[in-house]
Design brief:
500 residues; mainly beta; 7-stranded antiparallel beta sheet; 5 helices; 9% helix; 39% strand; Secretion system C-terminal sorting domain-containing protein
């Protein structure tokens, strides 16, 4: 065991740490159980002080103790700013940047499934439908009276009024089959880093999973990290730095490495059999590898200096291509060879042990009021024919390229609409819900016109269509069958519609 937090459960998979004020949730939509938190320390089970990334989740063995989100930057005076997370010792707290940090009505973690959203789109006009709490609690808006930004988590605004109202058909924009949305900030006064000022950030993280026939996708977790500069300072050399503690089962027998071509920091077992350690269950024979891959960023540096009590300035150096004492790294990437070629822990005679890796990404400018987005996937590899210590890494790298291809095809719930519960591209004409009682939505790829005809062919309603969506009140129409004649610049369609 490495660290300890006392946590009490509030409801379902959401809990709040009594000692730390940390909200947590569990995402387990596919073959992974991923524990998340709003304090910058993800994938750690704070309740039991153990690995919070379990794969395969049915077997209960952990592959990662946790992942820490850090940012460094320089202001116009060349002063270094640092927003730190180090095993729960963190400047990050839940919720948006605000005036009074003793008060917040905005949920810092909200989880929702694609099924709930699809059902809502199809059923929200039905009198018998009850909107699930996951949609009602979606943190679309901040508390402006407490200085929070109005627009927070993304949503589809069905009626175009700028207000999230699921009772009017609005719904969250997520990726994957289930997602958890985290909002955290680095500005709570009692959590400021000693020695260096924090950056002034509000970070939104969407952690999501997909059910898939692909084993690589089913064993993966994706993560979108969007960080807003809520300060009044224009920053240069803004760097995202991640400290990943990859424990492949037992944490005393691991190796670490980098695949720079795919922007991946990875961990694998340094022995052919992972026997576990200090009560932690091992994977046994044929242990896997686990990797963190940047999907839209290039790796700048990876590093592995073992300890856990770095000073703030040492951490800053580690995330900016230097050793803790400020001297340059001998190599940009830690153990970036491949099996028996180049530098690996195998070729250099490494001794298996506890591994913690630093990864930092391309510096950018971040002006006041702007944001920066990063996308990642946590991948898992296990060899079907275990021949040597590097076999699971070979499988991992193969899976990474499959995951990158899958990522390029992942859509948001707001990239599509549904008609009768079936996905329809926004490039197509769609009318929903069908049947409907009082509200009707017509999605079109371009502007146009519509005419509603009753079963006798009589015109009962007509008007203009504005892309991408036109919202009609049809409560005044009699129950029965109608035909919607829809004409746009690119297509004409007639759709049968039932008023109930």
């Amino acid at each position: 065991m490495k660290h300890f937090y006392f946590t009490i459960a509030l409801f379902s998979s959401i809990s709040v740490s009594q000692a730390q004020g940390v909200a947590t949730a569990t995402l387990e939509q596919n073959n992974v159980r991923a524990h998340i938190a709003d304090n910058g320390f993800l994938f750690n089970d704070v309740l039991n002080d153990q690995s919070g990334y379990i794969v395969p989740r049915q077997e209960g063995t952990g592959a990662m103790f946790g992942l820490n989100i850090n940012y460094t930057a320089k202001d116009p005076n060349e002063t270094v700013h640092f927003s730190k997370s180090l095993y729960g010792i963190s400047v990050w707290s839940g919720g948006p940047v605000r005036d009074n940090y003793n008060v917040s009505v905005t949920p810092s973690i909200s989880c929702v499934s694609r099924t709930e959203i699809s059902n809502h789109i199809h059923s929200y006009t039905s009198p018998s439908y009850t909107i699930p709490g996951s949609l009602l609690e979606w943190p679309a808006h901040g508390d402006q009276e407490n200085g929070e930004t109005w627009l927070l988590a993304p949503f589809e605004d069905i009626d175009g009024d700028g207000i999230y109202a699921p009772q009017n058909g609005d719904f969250p924009c997520i990726k994957g089959d289930r997602a958890c949305y985290i909002i955290m900030n680095d500005q709570k006064p009692d959590l400021q880093t000693e020695g260096l000022p924090s950056v002034g950030l509000e970070t939104h993280i969407m952690v999501y999973q997909l059910n898939s026939a692909s084993e690589a996708v089913n064993n993966a977790t994706f993560m979108e990290v969007k960080t807003f500069n809520r300060s009044e300072t224009d920053y240069t050399d803004f760097v995202l730095g991640i400290l990943m503690d990859g424990d492949i089962g037992g944490f005393d027998d691991d190796f670490i490495g980098t695949d720079a071509e795919s922007s991946t920091l990875y961990f694998y077992n340094g022995r052919t059999i992972d026997q576990g350690f200090m009560g932690v269950t091992g994977y046994g024979a044929n242990p896997p590898a686990l990797g963190l891959t940047a999907l839209n960023e290039d790796l700048s540096y990876t590093n592995y200096p073992f300890q856990s009590n770095w000073t703030v300035m040492e951490l800053y150096n580690l995330f900016n291509g230097r050793n803790p004492d400020g001297t340059p790294l001998e190599h940009d990437y830690v153990f970036d060879g491949y099996y028996e070629t180049g530098r690996t822990e195998i070729t250099t005679g490494g001794v298996p042990g506890d591994r913690r890796g630093f990864a930092s990404y391309t510096p950018v400018d971040l002006p006041s009021g702007e944001s920066h987005s990063s996308s990642f996937v946590i991948s898992y590899g296990k060899s079907s024919m275990y021949e040597h210590l590097f076999s699971p890494v070979e499988s991992l790298i193969t899976n990474i390229y499959e995951l990158k291809d899958a990522y390029s095809q992942i859509s948001s719930s707001c990239d599509e609409v549904l008609s009768n519960g079936k996905p329809i591209s926004k490039k197509e004409i769609a009318l929903f819900p069908n049947p409907a009682s009082d509200k009707l939505t017509i999605h079109t790829p371009s502007n146009g016109e519509f005419i509603l005809l009753n079963a006798l062919g009589q015109k009962v309603y007509e008007g203009k269509l504005t892309s991408p969506a036109t919202y009609l009140s049809v409560s005044h129409l009699s129950e029965g069958m109608y035909f919607a004649k829809i004409s746009t610049d690119t297509e004409d369609r007639t759709i049968k519609w039932i008023k109930e």
